Amino acid sequence: MRKKIEAWASLDAGMEAWEARAFAAAFWCDPTTGTTVFPDCLELGGRPYTSLPGNLRRVEGYLAADRCPNLVSIEGPLFIEGGLDLQGCTSLTSIRGRVEAAAVNLKGCSSLWHVPTGLTTEILDLADCLRLTLLPGGLDLMYLDLTGCSKLGELPEDMKVSEALWLTGCAALMSLPSNLETCNLFLEGCRSLQSLPDGLRVRDLL
């Protein structure tokens, strides 16, 4: 049996008292792992939170915390069975620690400069992350959108993107990984990119 816990203190300031009690009542602690679990989809979009609750480790649905203007950082480990939506969190600067989700949406997080090495997902949207200059090594994705990441200067040499890679408007990008392989590659507006690597394998170059 999982034991119910009261664990919403870090978000109380952004919630009505009854709402905080309702959320706290929904949390569980799995005694076999010590993991704090939210057993459903968790929707926090548009609220004035500065962080997620520090003891939240697993969401059994999706986690939507989009358009939270005061959200500054995400601290892992965090495991989400559905998607993680942080679109439009303009104060978000970093994600640290291990994060796993089916899809991660960080579009329009214009202050984001740090993406963790421990990020595991199939779909990653970083479009219009204007401060992003580097990506971590070890990324293995199906889809990666970097549209409008105008300060991104290079991509990890070991990066894998099997289906589609959007680099439209990456004005500072100077090179591509030497053995990059993907089905669809979008390069419009990459004005600093002087040449394509000999080992590039792509079905459609757009």
Structure write-up:
- This protein has 206 residues and is mainly β.
- It has one domain (59-205).
- It contains one helix and 18 strands.
- A nine-stranded parallel beta sheet has the order 4-6-9-12-14-15-16-17-18, with no helix packed on it.
- A hairpin with a 4-residue loop joins strand 2 and strand 3.
- The chain is globular and about 45 Å long.
- The N and C termini lie far apart (54 Å).
Strand and helix map with partners:
Blueprint: E1 3-4, H1 17-26, E2 28-30, E3 35-38, E4 42-43, E5 58-59, E6 63-64, E7 73-75, E8 78-80, E9 83-85, E10 94-96, E11 99-100, E12 103-105, E13 119-120, E14 123-125, E15 140-145, E16 160-166, E17 181-186, E18 201-205
Parallel strand pairs: 3-5, 4-6, 5-8, 6-9, 7-10, 8-11, 9-12, 11-13, 12-14, 14-15, 15-16, 16-17, 17-18
Antiparallel strand pairs: 1-2, 2-3
